[in-house]
Amino acid sequence: MALLDEILEYNEEFVKEKRYEEFMTTKFPDKKVVILTCMDTRLFEMLPKAMNFKNGDIKIVKSAGAVINHPFGGIMRSLLVAVYELNADEIYIIGHHDCGMASINPEKMLEKMKHRGVDEKTIDMMEYSGVDLKGWLRGFDDVTESVAHSVNMVRNHPLLDTTVPVHGLVIDPTTGKLDVVVNGNKNR
Asked: I need a surface site. Which of 32, 39, 82, 115 has the fewest CB within 10 A?
């Protein structure tokens, strides 16, 4: 059975048995917090539990490495929507130790793309057009520096209310221990 079929079969029972009821909440975060974190599978349940959050408490935005690549990209837009439309009063940017983005090799990733069918002419055309694919695909060397960089990008965004604290933390994906990189309450 294909994974999609398994998901749909399970979902039918989930809805029929009303297992959704324990998750019912509104679209507004009860704790008025939005978190940008990594898409790492270890953080899926660990991060909210390590911070004592339950369903409905927070908004979570995910990107590889909890990185904001562009000040006017989708990640930043999501943070602004959370603040202005969904009543979030604080922003947390949470990276993690042992992050896959720390070991990304752009050249190897481009080779994997080619191996899976992306035409080399497409890659050449993008680079010829001025897209720095290697820079865009590059990870980071130090998670604390990466978190601090993302915090600064958000905190200094021209459309963000300057009274919104922007915190930066790093979590251990094994133990859940949080280390503060930037305390946004001290930087307002």
From this structure: 115
Domain with CATH 3.40.1050.10 in the chain: 25-100+141-188
Helices (H), the chain: 3-16, 43-50, 74-84, 106-115, 120-128, 133-137, 143-155
In contact, 167 and 91? CB cutoff 8 Å: yes
Going by their DSSP bridges, the two strands 90-96 and 33-37 should be labelled as parallel
Q: Are strands 178-182 and 166-171 parallel, antiparallel or unpaired?
A: antiparallel
Cβ-contact 60, 35 below 8 angstroms: yes
Does the pLDDT of residue 41 top 80, yes or no?
yes
Mean pLDDT, range 159-181, rounded to an integer: 97
What does pTM read for this prediction?
A: 0.91
Contacts of 117 by beta carbon, 8 Å cutoff, 6+ apart: none
